[in-house]
Structure formats: structure tokens, C-alpha cells
Amino acid sequence: MSESAPAPLPAPPRPERTEGFPAAGNLTDVEREELRRHGILLTSLEELYNWGRSNSIWPLQFGLACCAIEMIAAATARFDIARFGAEIFRPSPRQADLMIVSGTVTKKMAPQVVRLWNQMPEPKYCIAMGACAISGGPFKQGYNVLKGIDRFIPVDIYIPGCPPRPEALLHGLVQLQAQIKGEKLKGPDAARHTRPEEPSEFPVPEYGAHDLEPPKNPAVWTPPEPQGKA
Amino acid sequence: MHEHPYGFLALFLGVAIAFPLIMLGVAWLWVRFFQPAKPGARKNATYECGLAPSGDSWIQFKAHYYLYAILFLIFDVEVLFLLPFAVAFTGLSTGALFTMLVFILLLVEGLVWSWQRGYLEWK
After folding, report:
1. Alpha-carbon gap: B50 to the closest alpha carbon of chain A (Å)
2. A135 partner at 20 to 30 Å CA-CA among A212, B53, B61, B104?
3. Quick check: A119 and B43 CB within 8 A?
4. Taking CB atoms and an 8 Å limit, are B35 and A193 in contact across chains?
5. Considering CB atoms only, which of B38, B49, B51 is closest to A200?
6. At a CB cut-off of 8 Å and minimum separation 6, what does A214 contact?
């Protein structure tokens, strides 16, 4: 051995054993990959759960505006959302995992969207598809358009575009799958639906004389600070 | 031992009972250990395509539809029996004839009753 040989890199720190949860992640990724190369597949309940969940996301079947046409196109043979296991558009919120807010949410429609979101069982996810669902889009100055569905419900994935192409929706879906695959069952950063203190339902706004009442849910959304104020 | 030709049905029955029980058991364990149940008044409300639900989904049907059931029996179902009865009329035994007459009498009774009550009037 010559003295010029580089010293071996220090092993990456072993992850902490999660308290109260059996067999979750006290192997490093390197060790797991090494085992996988030898034909031994080690998994945890958490991984199995997230793997199954992320590959069978059932969206709620409803469309609001032109983005819905792109959503329909994503479900057809050319783009084929079934490749990602999300082709089963459910006609009832009781069976749906994902709400794709596809299009302009008018103030008259917003209470219905929030009520549908409330009626979905956990775990549930929301994709805001298109500029209108994100911020009101080209109708932001309009008197009758909600300026983003994230004022009332928590949004996981934002897909910009006017409308976004089906590939963009598929990309958003893959991003959501990645998010689900990284979710924890226990611990301080556990997923939303595993925490007892997280709310399962959100206040449904009323369609008032001038605006929605309340115009936003402060627990979900706070107005951004004004930028560049001197 | 000889295998029963329908023995596989018992197997099917066993699987059909065990499968949902396992599913429900796993779901119960899951709620117990990982995912707390979060029911709520808005969440459990009747699903009416997002609109505010008006009332319960367990509604009562109007009992008045029994009139239509009786009249349907008299004018529609009875024909099904009357036609073969008329075709086989000459070759019937006394017992069969008597049974058929009792059947017709029961339905005619309903017809007389509804006629008297004025249910045959078109309003």
C-alpha cells in the first residue's frame, strides 16, 4: 500500500431509528441498493403503502373550464393517464384521492368545490391545473372569479399554463407521485392525513352579495407581503 | 376420498367471506395505528354533486303507490294467467278450475274495491 492512496470516505450517517415504528429506515440507501443488486428486496410498510398509493391515484371526475378539455385529453389514448394508474376518474368524492381543479373557479362555483373537497376521504390531494385555478389567471381582475383555489383548500401541485398541455398534467401527476412516495407515516414530518390535529374539513364559503364570505380561509392562505415597498 | 363435484363452491364461499373480512381488518388496524379517523358533519353530509345537501338520503317513498301496484296486478299480471287459462280451459281438472277461480275472485275483489273508491277515475 502506498501512502498516496486516498483515505476511504467516511460512511454516511446511519438514519435514526424511528420511534415506535417497526422496521422503517435504519438502512442507508447505499446498503439497500447493495442488497437490491444481490436480489434481496427490502422494503418497509411505509414504502409499500406509498408505492401502492402513488400508483393508484383516483381523480375526482369534474371539470370546470377549458383546462378540463386538456384533462380529458390526458385520459384518452394519445396521452393515456392510465400509464400512471390515474385513469379511474370517480364520479363520487367518496372514492376519489385527487381533486384536479381544472379551470376557472367562479365565486358561484367555489362553495361547491370546497364542499366536494370536504367530502373526499383522506388521504386526499389537490392539483391546481392552469392559471385560473392557481391565481384567477386572465380573469384575475374579474368581479366573479376566485383568485386561486388555494385560498380555501390546500393545494399540493400547481400546474401553470393556459391551459397546460396534457403532458404538463402528467408531469404534475408524476410530481404528486414523488411527493406521496416521500411521505412519512410517523414522526415529526408525518403526512398530513396521519396527524390527528390536522383538519379534515374546511369552512365552505357562502356566496355573498359582493364576494365570498369569508373571502379566504386564513388557516390555509395568507396574502403575500407587498414586494419592493420603500 | 372422493372429491365432491361442487366442493369448489365451498372454497369460493370461504374466500368470499375471508377476503372482505381481511380488508376490513387491515383497514381497522390502519385506523388504529396510523391514520386517525376524521369524520365530520360536512364530510359525512349527503353527496349532492357539491351542492348543499337538503335533508337526509334515507327518504321515505310515498306509500300511496300501493294503488298502482294493485291496479297493475289486476290489469297486467292477471292477463298472463288468464290467457293460458282460456287456452287450456276445456281440458282442466276440477281442482285446477277451482284454484283459478279463487285467484280471479281475489283480483276481482280488488277491482271492485278500487272501482267503488273511485281510483279508476282519471284525474
Report:
1. 4
2. B53
3. yes
4. yes
5. B38
6. A203, A205
The answer to whether B34 faces chain A, any CB pair under 8 Å, is yes
Q: Which three cell numbers stand for residue B65?
A: 303507490
- Put simply, whether A201 touches B (Cβ < 8 Å) is yes
Chain A residue closest to B34 (CA)?
Answer: A194
Give the count of alpha carbons within 13 A of A135, CB side only: 12
Q: Which three cell numbers stand for residue A223?
A: 396574502
* Residue A126 near residue A98 (C-beta atoms within 8 A): yes
User: DSSP labels for chain B?
Assistant: -PPPTTHHHHHHHHHHHHHHHHHHHHHHHHHHHT------TTTTS--STTSPP-S-S-PPPPGGGHHHHHHHIIIIIHHHHHHHHHHTSTT--HHHHHHHHHHHHHHHHHHHHHHHHTTTS--
pLDDT in tens, chain B (123 residues): 678 888 899 999 999 999 999 999 999 999 998 888 888 888 988 888 888 888 777 888 788 888 888 888 888 888 888 888 889 888 888 999 999 999 999 889 989 998 998 888 877
E-assigned strands of chain A? 98-102, 125-129, 157-159, 206-207, 212-213
What are the beta bridge partners of residue A106? Answer: A145
- At B53, phi and psi to the nearest 5? -70, 140
Indicate the residue of B36, B42, B50 with minimum beta-carbon distance to A113: B50
d(CA A154, CA A145): 18
Q: Name the residue type at position B111.
A: L
pTM: 0.73
Q: Which residues of A touch B34 (CB under 8 A)?
A: 185-186, 194
* Residue found under cell 406509498: A50
Cα–Cα distance list, A206 to A101, A122, A126 (Å): 19, 24, 21
Output phi, psi for B73, to 5 deg: -60, -45
Report residue A210 CA to chain centroid gap. 31
As for the ipTM of the complex, it is: 0.70
Q: Does B2 touch chain A (CB under 8 A)?
A: no
* B38 contacts in chain A (CB < 8 Å): 122, 196, 199-201
